[in-house]
Amino acid sequence: MNNKQSSRRGFLKATAGITAAAVAVPSLFASQNSKNENFYGYEDKTIGSFLKLKSAGEMDFNYPDADSPCKAVWVNGEIKAYSLLCTHKGCPIMYSASSKSFRCPCHFSEFDAELNGQMIIGQATENIPEILVKVKDGNIIAYGVNGLIYGRESNIKG
Amino acid sequence: MGFSINDKRPLPPVGATKKNITCEFCIVGCGYTAYKWPKGTSGSNKTNALGVDFSKQQPALGVWASEQMVNSVTDRDGKEYNIMVIPDQDCVVNRGQNSARGGAMAATLYSKSTFTRDRLKDSQVFGGNNLNRTTWRDATDLTARVLKKIIDNDGPDQVAFKAFDHGGGGGGFENTWGTGKLFFTAIQTRSAAIHNRPAYNSEVHATREMGIGELNTSYYDTELSDTLFVIGANPYETQSNLFIMHWAQNLQGATIEAKKKEFDKGETADAAKIIFVDPRITASITNSIALAGEENVLHLRIKPGTDVTLMNALFSYIHEQGWEAKDFVKKHTQGFTKAANTNIISLNEASKVTGVSADDIKKAAAWISKPKKSGHRPRTAIFYEKGVIWGIKNYENIASIVNVAILTQSVGRVGTGVCRLGGHQEGYVRPPTPKGMPDRENLVVIDAEAAEGNYLAFFAWGCNPFVDSIMGERLSGAFKRRSEIVKKAMSRNIGADNETMADAIYRACKYDGGLFFIDIDIYPTFKTEVAHVSFPAATTMEMNLTSMNGERRVRLSEKIVDAPGAAKPDCLIAATIANALKFLYEKEGNSKMAKRFEGFDWKTEEDAFNDGFAGQGAKMDSQGGPTGALASYDLLRENGNNGVQNPIVKVSNGKLVGTRRLYTDNKFGTKSGKAMFKPTAQPPMPRQVANQMKKHEFWVTSGRLNEVWQSNYHTSRLPMPSTRWPLAPIQINPKDAKEKGIQSGDLVMLYNDYGSVRVVAYVTDSTRSGELFIAFGFPNSPASNIVTDFVDPDTKIPFYKGTAASMRKIGRIEDVANSMSFKSRI
C-alpha cells in the first residue's frame, strides 16, 4: 500500500510534466540508424550497452522517435522493452523493479513487464506496446514496435 | 514473439458519419462517439474528423483511438466500412475517458475477420443432429404453432421465460417493452424470471418499500460528498468511470471549490473520506488509499454474511451518540421505535459477530454522521451492490443499509444518496400481467421449477441461465435432459411440415417430460446447444437504443452499422412472434385470442419506444415514469450523450429537462410519504449453505473482474480479455495455497454437493485464509455450479455470494498458465 501512496505523489509530479516528458526527454544514446526492410519503415536504433542494462536492470530510451519514451528492463534473464505511455490515456507509466511491473499514476492501470506488457488490472484496452530489441556487438538495438503507441495514429510519424 | 501489423490505424475523414453511442456495458453508461467511413478512404493525420493533428504526439488525456477502438465492418448492402468508437470528451459522465470494457466497443462489432464472426445471423431450427439455418418465417411459424398448442391446452403459465429487463446492449427500453408486451399482454404468462436470477423480482424490494427508489442521486453529487460509504462493491473494477472521474476527484480534494458553492454558508468543505465494507481487499480500496491517503480510507473487513449486524451496530452507535438527523427523523420518517427494538446492538456484540473492531465501527459512524467542524451534518453518499444484494438475505441486507441512510438523512440533500451502484444500465418499461404477479414472498422460482420438470416451453432471451443461476450444474443438466426428449421427437419427424412438427414437439413436452427451448441471443452459447429454435438478435450500434444509467440519465444510443445477417432488434423479434400467433388465431377464426396479439405492427425500434416508454408504457411500470411521455427520439438526439435524467420535468427550448437528485422535498414513496425504518435482525446462515460449510473446507464468494462483462459473451472474443482470462481465476490466500501445494497458474477443482468447477489458481493477499473468491460469469468455468438453491424467502433473490466447497489441485495447463499474469491486482 505504501508503494501506491508514493505513486500518488508521483502522479502530481507526473501529470504536471506530461507534455514535457513527451517531447523533451533526450535520446540517451546516439542513434545508429540503418534501414531495416523487414519491419515496415522502422529503423534500427542503438539504445545502449547490453552489460549496462544487465547491471542497472532498466534503461530509458526513445523509440521510434524522440517523442516516444520507452524503457528496457532485464527480467528473467532476458531483455524486455516497452513504451512508457499508458495505452489508456497516455500518462507516463512507472516501473517497479521489485514487482517487475509498470503502474500508471493517473488511473492505476498496471502492466506485467515479464509477460509482454499484459495488463494486470486497469482501464486500458490494450497491453503496453512492446519494443522489439536485439543485441549486436554488445549493444541493444531497437528495431520495431508491436502495438500502437498512445497518442498516435501511426507509430512512424509521416 | 511475432510481429503484427498493428502499429497504424485509419482516421475518419472530415464528413464521416458521426453518431452518439452510450456504452453498452456497465451502469455508468459513458458517452462515446462513433465514426463510420468507407473502407479505402481515410482522413490525413492533419485533417480528419477528430480535428486532431496526429502529425504530433498527442498529450496525455487527449483524444486517441486505441487498437480496439477501430474495426472494419460490412453492411447488408455488401459495402465495407471502417468504424471508430472513442470516448466523448463532452459527455459529463466520463469526460473523454474510457474503461477497459467500453473502450473495446468497436472491437465487439460483428466482423468477418475477428472472433465476433460467430454472431448468430439467421434463425435456426433443430433438425438432424444440430441447428439448421432457416428463414424468420419458418422459425417463427413453428414456434408460434407450439406456443399456441400450449396456451390453448395448458394455459399460458406453461410458457416460461427468462429475459433481460435492463438497459445497455442486450436490453433497452425498446426491447424490455417488446418482450414484456409479448409475454405479459399477449401470451399472458406469469412464469417469468429475470436474466441473472431465478424469479421475476426486484433486487431492491426493501428500499422501495421503505419509500426510497434505489437510484436517487447523481454522479455530480458524489463529487460533493464528505463521506462515501461503499458496501459489497468494487467500483474501480465494476463502475470504473464513476470511481475514476467522480470519486477520485473528490478523494483528492479537487472538488472543494464546487463544494463551497453548493454547501450551506460557512459549512466545512474538505476532501472526501471513504469507507468500504468488504471481506476482501480490492483494487477500489488500494486505489482509494493512493488517492486519499491511508488516514482517509477505512476498510471494514467483515466476516461474510454479517453486513446486517454491522449496519445495526452503526445504527445503534449513531443513535447512542445523538448523531442522527433528529429533525428529519421526526418529520419525515416512521417506524423508528419498532426498528430500534430489533436492531439495537452493543458494539462488543457486533464486533464479535462481524470481526470488525469496536473502534473501527465507531470511526465509521463518526465519518458517516458526526457533525463537521462547522457543526453541519456530514453529507454521506451510501452505495451498495451485489456483495449485499446477492448476500445472505437480500431483504434485510438492503433494509439495514437504508436504515442507516434515513437515520442520518443521507438522501435528498446535496452530496448524499443511498443507492445501488448497479451492474448493467437500466431500461425497464413493461405492462403488467393481466392476472397480476404473486407477492414477492410467493413468487415462483422459475429455474427450480424448470429443473423439476415444470413448463412446456422455455425462452432464454438475451441471458445465459447456465451461467447466472442457482445450482447451475443441476439446472443445466435438467435443461439438457429435457431438451433431448424434444430433439428425439423432432428427429423422428424428418421432413414434417410445421404443424406436424409442432404437434410432435408439443407431445414430447406434454407427455414425455420434454421442454421446448427457444434461445434468443447474439452469439451461440452452451445454452444454444439445448435450443430447438434460435433467433438472432441485434445489439448496441446495430439499433437505436435507449437506456438509463445509475444516475437515471437516459440517452439515445444511435444505430451506426447493420446487424449481422438477418438479426433483428429484440423488440422486433417479439413482434414477429406475436404476429405469427395472431395469424394462427385469425386463421382459425378465434378473434378473441387474435386480439390479444394485436399492437405489434412496429416497423422499427422507434415504434416500440413510442408505444412503450413514450406511450402507454408511461402509464404502467416504467423507469421513465409518467413524464416519459415527453420524450421522443428527436428530443433525445438533441440532448446527445448528456441525455436527460429521469424523471423528465419539461421540454424547454427544444431540450428535455430532467432531475439531478430525488427526494429533495423529503416526500418518499410510501403511503404516508414518510421514509420507513425496518426491523432487521441478523439472518442465520441458510440451511443449505450451513450444510455445505460442515462438509467442505472453504468459504467461497464470487464477483467480477473489470475486463469481463456479464456472461463473457463479447469479452471472451476480444484479444486482451480472452488472453488475460482464459478461465475463471480463483483467488487463494498464500497460506491456503501453500497448505494445498497450489501455485498460481495451477488448475484446481472446487466441488461441493451441488456441482464442481475447474478454475485457475491466483494466489493473492486479497482474500483471507479459509475464504476463496471465484470470478463470476465464465461459461467455461461457471461459479454457479457450486451455488446452492437457497433464495431469500422474502424476495427469492439467491445467495450467489456464499457457498462452501472443497478444493483440489488438478494439475497445470501450460497454455493457460503461461498466458496469464498472476501479479497482484491490489
Report on the structure:
Chain A is built from 3 helices and 11 strands, in the order ααββαβββββββββ. Chain A has 158 residues and is an alpha+beta fold. Chain A has 2 domains: 40 residues; 102 residues, 3-layer Sandwich (Rieske Iron-sulfur Protein). In chain A, the strands form 3 sheets. Chain A has a 4-stranded antiparallel sheet with strand order 1-2-11-10. In chain A, strand 6 and strand 7 form a beta hairpin. Chain A is globular, with a radius of gyration of 15 Å. The N terminus of chain A is likely disordered. Chain B is of the alpha/beta class and 826 residues long. Helices cover 31% and strands 18% of the residues of chain B. Chain B has 27 helices and 31 strands. Chain B has a 7-stranded mixed sheet with strand order 6-5-18-17-16-7-8, with helices on both faces. In chain B, helix 3 crosses helix 22 and helix 18 crosses helix 19. Chain B is globular. The model of chain B has no long low-confidence stretch (mean pLDDT 96). The chains are: A alpha+beta (158), B alpha/beta (826).
Q: Which residues of chain A sit in consecutive blocks of at least 5 with pLDDT less than 50? A: 1-38
| Main pleated sheet of chain A | 4 strands, antiparallel
Number of strands of chain B: 31
Straight-line distance between termini of chain A: 43 Å
String of helices and strands of chain A: HHEEHEEEEEEEEE
Task: Classify the beta-strand content of chain B into a percent band.
Answer: 15-25%
Sheet with the most strands: spatial strand order of chain B: 6-5-18-17-16-7-8
Roughly how much helix do the residues of chain B carry, as a percent range? 25-40%
Form type of chain A: globular
Contiguous low-pLDDT stretches of chain B (5 residues minimum) are none
According to DSSP, the number of beta strands of chain A is: 11
- Subunit organisation of the chains: heterodimer
Radius of gyration of chain B, CA atoms, in whole angstroms: 26 Å
Based on CA atoms alone, the radius of gyration of chain A comes out at 15 Å
Query: Could you give me the name of the CATH homologous superfamily of the largest domain in chain A?
Result: Rieske [2Fe-2S] iron-sulphur domain
How confident is the prediction overall: mean pLDDT of chain A? 82
The fraction of residues in strands of chain A falls at 25-35%
Helical region count of chain B?
A: 27
Give the C-level CATH assignment of the largest domain in chain A.
Mainly Beta
* Structural shape of chain B: globular
Helix/strand class of chain B: alpha/beta
